[in-house]
Amino acid sequence: MSVNVSQAHAILKKVFGYDAFWPLQGEIISHILEKKDAMVVMPTGGGKSLCYQIPAMIFHGLTIVVSPLISLMKDQVDQLRECGVPALFLNSTLSSVEYNDHISKLKANSVKLLYLAPEALLAPRTLALLSSIKVDCIAIDEAHCISEWGHDFRPEYRKLAEVRTAFPDAVCAALTATATPRVREDIKKSLNINDLNEYIGSFNRPNLLLEVTPKTEPIDQLLAFLKLYRNESGIIYCGARQQTENLHAILHRKGYSVRPYHAGLSERERTENQELFSRDDIQIIVATIAFGMGINKSNVRFVVHYDLPRSIDNYYQEIGRAGRDGLPAHCLLLFGYGDIQKLKYFIGQKTDQEQRVANILLNTLVGFAETDLCRRVPLLTYFGETFDLERCGMCDNCQTEQKDLVDMTVPAQMFLSCVKRTGEAFGAGHVIDVLRGSSSQKVLKFRHDQLSTYGIGTAYSAKQWRHMSRQWIQKRLLMYEYTHGTLKLTPKAWEVLRGEETVMGKLEEAKKEKGGVLRQRERELGDYDSVLFEALRKKRKEIAGLANIPPFAVFHDRTLKEMAFYCPRTRESLSALYGIGAAKLEKYGETFLEIIREHCQKPLKKPL
């Protein structure tokens, strides 16, 4: 083992409090320390930041980190400082005194990591300042912003390739959590990074429970879901500002600790709301996609997509806000065909080329939502990864047991026959009206009250029919024509109509609860003392408030749960826990040990 790699392991434990590297981290760090450029794709929560933060502490010179959002760089710098790492940022939030102080520290070579937005790095005065400083590494975070095929393309990111010439001795690391094969090729070409220097981690986030459910009564569905996660942090994504405001108002009236976040708010309001969320002063953020990369909060226990995202890239990045501490988190997508029509309308305002790309991305997302396979199969396939397991155990499809399904062949035959007899020219709503014997103007206009299928489906409610029809679309018995919103039969449908194929499904909409697999994963730390955990969390909140930092910058939830499980009484045993490095042990050790000792007047639950 080289001296540099030995140093990296020592820093991992002493500074960050971790015993071992996660997959690929060790290889990437060694690669960067050899001054070889790197393209790194790892999932959110997979430890990308350590891949450049640890080399930065070993290099003699400065590491520049290009970060897209001010709030994101502030979170990262706060966490690094808590670990005793000399890091700072330069941006518009600094006063002139603070800015000059940061410049002085840079000139004195007392800084290891400098965080900048791409616009700031490209500014002539910044380049002039850095020209006199030894720069050993340029880390480009959220590197998918470089690619025109990325879901969040930013032209200023594209110009970063030019900056490399100003720092010929600096190694370049491009890092992202969301990049399809095509996006990765674009990034490598732009930054002149060859294939041998590419590191692709798994896109699978096994701690995330993925659930897609038909969007029927969205407010009621959301309120029922939130009851499962009282006093937990979560994000609810909406498609538009007005929806965000409306939903925020409803939840506020219901007594939830909640704030909105969208581009229509002032920068001050957005910053304040995000800070309150980061510090656990509020429980829930209701947001548009404007609230994306700028959150580094580790203890987000749920993410709800109230409206349909635009693509799998957006969906994956947004659920990536959940469970960054490695503990279980729940990701719920309310899937409604009305949302598809809204997105189709906005896509129609784009150029022909943009429409083609947007429609491909939307159709891929709809395929993911409609699948009855393990959800990780289409999700990971999209990012070029093969999922070898037949069942992941952490998605709604895998947690649906065969015994929970009923024979739906007869109602399926009724519905499919009605679709055919109405000419395959109408949507589900009209077909259901015919089946239930409606006297609506539309039914009478087309004389569909004279069809043999008219009124044969009164045994089921309109809600039940809608729920069943969505299942038949997922099972590829029906094809939904997005342009006109009509249903057409597939070849598989004729097998059902001829009685050659049995249709199994759920007759009523499932009432989702935390699945058995999720409960099993929540027991991984054992039966931790919840009273002690709350006492530790209260102290963490108090410390964070005094230091003006988010609570997770003090300790992750996982660290507090390990304290409440193992009940360490000494500094040595406390230092063995997850995420406790030397600086945090020195700063907070005795404070938390005092709480543990006072609470636990009994032997350790388990030896460390």
Could you tell me the strand content as a percent range?
A: 5-15%
How many β-strand runs?
A: 17
Number of domains: 4
Structural class: alpha/beta
Average pLDDT: 87
What is the compact description of this entry?
This protein is an alpha/beta fold and 608 residues long.
Tell me what you see in this structure.
This protein is of the alpha/beta class and 608 residues long. It starts with a helix and ends in a 9-residue tail after the last helix. The protein folds into four domains: 3-200, Rossmann fold (3-Layer(aba) Sandwich), CATH 3.40.50.300; 208-400, Rossmann fold, CATH 3.40.50.300; 404-505, Arc Repressor Mutant, subunit A, CATH 1.10.10.10; 525-599, HRDC domain (DNA polymerase, domain 1, Orthogonal Bundle). 45% of the residues lie in helices and 12% in strands. It has 28 helices and 17 strands. A seven-stranded parallel sheet has the order 3-4-2-5-6-1-7, sandwiched between helices. Strands 8-13-12-9-11-10 form a six-stranded parallel sheet. The protein is globular. α2 packs parallel to α3 (50-58), α15 (337-347) runs antiparallel to α16 (352-370) and α20 (428-435) packs across α22. Mean pLDDT is 87; it is low at 509-524 and 604-608. A hairpin with a 4-residue loop joins β15 (478-481) and β16.
List keywords for this structure.
disordered C terminus, 7-stranded parallel beta sheet, 608 residues, Rossmann fold, alpha/beta, Arc Repressor Mutant, subunit A, single chain, 4 domains, 28 helices
